[in-house]
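note to self: dont lose this again. the chain is below, predicted strucutre after it. 400 aa total, dont forget to put it in the shared folder this time
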Amino acid sequence: MFMTLAHGFLISRLDRHFAGGFLSAAPAATPQQIPDLPSWVGNVWVNSCGAFALTLVIALMAARWVGPRGFMDQPGGRKQHKAPVPRIGGLALIISLALAGACGWLKDTLSPLVWMPLGAMALIGILDDRFDLRARWKAAGTFAIAILLALLGTLELTQLPAAVHLFGCNVSGMPLLLSALLLMLFWGIPQAFNLIDGANGLTLGYGLICLTVLTLAGTPVPYVLGAVTALFVLNWPRSRLFLGDCGSLCLGLLCAMLAFKAFGRTKPEAVLWLFAYPIADVVQVVIVRLATGSPLGEADRNHFHHRWKEALGARAYLRVPLIWLQAALCASGTLLTGSWRIIPWIGLAWLSVQTTVFMVSSIRRHQRAKAVCSQPRSQRNDTRLHVDLEADPRHSSVGN
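---
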């Protein structure tokens, strides 16, 4: 009885204040509520260029004044940059979005209800960038945000007059399954964006791919595209700032919410095409850690960008564009139809083979390193094993 009353109350509130869905843009205000905005606000190019300029200024100011106050990423260990770099990209992004939202420039992109989880995610990321929060606390906070979004998404989809199908299965008629899937979307994708953020431009470039696909799919986000592009030019090919946990978590959550808005009602399987790359990367890393007995929260060098760097050697600068190409091929599955569908399937086949090869080689490398560790020092004569030991941070102290 209580759940029924709560369900009806939330639906009535959503219908009254957020017509069209909790992630849809707010209904247009009448002239008596908000004065008409200038005509240039609706211009996509002007909107994007304005976002680019504003975010660029904010980012440079934050790097100069905020970075030295505890937001510098120090080199050492797994971090191979040569000098401290300010990790304030996420802070600049959220400030730019907040200013745009206050001015009404995002009223056709984000509904008011979206700002609460986005702001909470930004706060968690900022605290982590500044104080290096424990992984369990960060995961718990982001999980709570995802639960709220999953609940709201489930309430919205179960009230649609038409059923929502995922691979032919009516998921809107199974609220528990739908809630679990949405929880994976709103918690897993931000975490995946955070995990792949290990090479200059990688996460921001992939974010631009996602935002471009969403725009072409009918969910235009010109301001967000301009803001992310500004951070991208400061992060690739040479990095003047890092995105930080705030940036990767917020960008991941923003892409997940926009993907729900674009595909949640009509073709939810498109979400898998859009996020195929980070899903595959995280899955293979988790399998490797489980197979080798490593803690799931322990950092390693088994992500795709790490493995491509080892494979390409002197041409390691090609790894990020290669991953972008791979991700774009898979993401095209959200848009292409007919005979053009061969393009995303080629990307998926490439991703599948790559995942299998890297996963198997990572497990074997760990097994070889473990075998060498069990031998007396005098018997460690295999050069290849020594190379594997040096590449694995868990065994980097062997032989010192």
